[in-house]
Amino acid sequence: MNKTYIRNRYIFILDILSVLMSTLLTYFTVFSEMPLTEEVVFFTGGMYTACNLVTFAAFRVYTTAWCYSGTGELVKFLLVNIVAVVMVFVVNEALRLLGIIHFAHRRINFVIAILSVLSMTVIRMFAKELHKAIGLRVKHDNTTVGNAVHRVLIIGAGDAGRIIMNNSKSAGDTNVEIVGFIDDDRAKHGKKFFGVKVLGGRYDIVRICEQMDIDRIILAIPSAYAEERKEIIDICSQTKCSIKTIPGLSELVDAPEKENVIRDVRIEDLLDREPVVLDNDRIKDLVSGKVIMVTGGGGSIGSELCRQIMRFSPKTLVIVDIYENNAYDIQMELNEKYPDNKPVVLIASIRDKVRLEEIFAQYRPQIVFHAAAHKHVPLMESSPREAIKNNVFGTYNLAITADKFGVDKFVMISTDKAVNPTNVMGASKRLCEMIIQCMENISETDFVTVRFGNVLGSNGSVIPLFKRQIENGGPVKVTHKDVIRFFMTIPEAAQLVIQAACYANGGEIFILDMGKPVKIYNLAENLIRLSGYKPNVDIKIEIVGLRPGEKLYEELLMNSDNLKHTQHKKIFVDKPESLGYDALQESLALLQKAVDNRDDDEVRSVLEKVVPTYIRDNISFNKQCESTRS
Question: Which of 375, 389, 417, 570 is the catalytic position?
Fold first, then answer.
């Protein structure tokens, strides 16, 4: 027998009693002046009970767990009762017309119906509240003395805030006490939602947290603009409270299956950046039904490109990476999510031209996203030949192979460090951009570059490093107090790269709008606060000096005069002068000779010749930047 039905047996008995009592109350109280017999009374009550039971059985009313019911179940129950009432009137009229009974009593039946529906509804609401009260008592009895009660302040008295409030009460969480709401709408100030008052606006947060001993803040403003969220988080960071948030609407839409909607505030929430709005129809036209290749597909950007591409149903996604662990991770993730369209994952190096030709010959990719590269500035300063072999010659191998096999579009991922580079990594990526522009002039393939700055949480990012240092008790090591960088999130970068590919006609350098630059020192302070500590009190920040090849200030554009808008407000396009094919071959020959000679100093000297914007002396460059900005 259905367990829910067994739990509802008491409600079943109460339903029968409520109908009979409603009948008696109607006949002997409301219509007491009418001459009625007991036979008539019990016939009416029995008929109403029978019609109710038949209707309730047909609509499986007693399979509902009323202890956990909501508005939807209650509305359904009322609709079923309307059906039962109609059946009573139909049966009553039919029996009267057939001569089986000699009374109609329509008004009496109508009153019985109203009283019965009200009483049965009250029974269900009472059952739910009783279950909740018993649950609260059990939870309270089981709660250990050592469990502290968190005093919570909810930012936002809109729908999201009230849902959190209602869910907290329904769940019976005895370790949480919601003290109040904060909302900038002055019309809500002083009003109560679910018995909890709106205490003030954002500028009252610090005072209220101190006065009311708040230890946890929940941001329930998913529709707020990035700038507004950042300002509120900055205010909340001035308190001693732990801060949690409901994600923005774009994150909720992208991952609606997330069970735990409330999460910790992340450093990404402090970026003053609005959500990316994509032209999904155009991206679908670009990707759907195509063979897409992603090199470096196991890395931070490459793996996110793969995730985004798979959303638009490519015919085949070919993931190429030299590092098998990363490749395996993204393979398992995508296999599970897209069991009917599993990607092809291949271990290969872009340095190996023969292997690349084998892959292209077998899979015939139509679009190539080239994300494979050595990107770590200090490591490439100490191993410059590896930067040349992998970044420069690897890109050249891939571009030549793409041209040979008639790829439609080739999109290379570049970096802001390629602009006036002061390091080997940046210079190598600038030379890669020059290769791509040169290939555009000699190939039917559309070769383009997408350039952007640092990506939060990527491999080699400062964020994981800072987090480890905080976990170890500090100090957090910052290279320079004035160093600034442009940042964007990994999903944002990948989405804009794919969107830029839609606009590619060949030869462009697409530049992503990185928003406002971020001071790394401030980033470290915010991360310490989000971890529950005070900067330079609980966790020290130590200035360690710029590393080899590093700039104080990164740039995104080589010549802003050439910058043009695209159809997307966050994507711009530049068309620097391209390098001739003969000049490119000469430059590559010089670099190959330096690499063969195993001479790192010669590699840097050749880079100075072939990349005119390369500034080998980063120390003098940074001093000049400091004097210019001071």
Answer: 417
